[in-house]
Sequence to fold (228 residues):
Amino acid sequence: IAGITQAPTSQILAAGRRMTLRCTQDMRHNAMYWYRQDLGLGLRLIHYSNTAGTTGKGEVPDGYSVSRANTDDFPLTLASAVPSQTSVYFCASSKSNTGGYGYTFGSGTRLTVV
Amino acid sequence: LAKTTQPISMDSYEGQEVNITCSHNNIATNDYITWYQQFPSQGPRFIIQGYKTKVTNEVASLFIPADRKSSTLSLPRVSLSDTAVYYCLVGDGRRGAGSYQLTFGKGTKLSVIP
Fold:
């Protein structure tokens, strides 16, 4: 089934540890995004990538890094996790980085930093 | 990015038509209007997108007046399974102007009552 696969589904992580959230899409979409969702704050953009080989910072990029080595994969790395990074993380993709296409979201990764 | 304003919550009985209005007074010429639906523990799901006038698909209708400063998502004959959070988003679709980044507000929590 075409779509976005995120892994892991959930994770409990000790503060200070490094963690990479995986995101893979099979729709050959050019643009990909990482959002975090917290109660009362809605979804906030962390990082984005318009196309393979390029990335950009979103609204809340501090403490996170991304890479886009190919079209399909867009991993999100927490170099040294802190409790404030406890959240649900959603990866999304879009056919284009222009406004004429909607986003497809993954099912999310629930991360708890203790 | 244009800011959107929508009701925080709405209640409706099963079988009724639900209309959720979103205000976006600062919408720009190139902006598209997109609506997403999110169920608990799932990623947002694209519902409908429009630029002007009326758009209809198998799920909903989107009404956009000529001045485009607001839009109304119409859900016909809602059922209990339509209980979800609905997000209205407005984004810059200019090609080459940088990433088209959707900004999610807090959405409208729709509760369908039996």
Notes: Chain A has a mean pLDDT of 92.
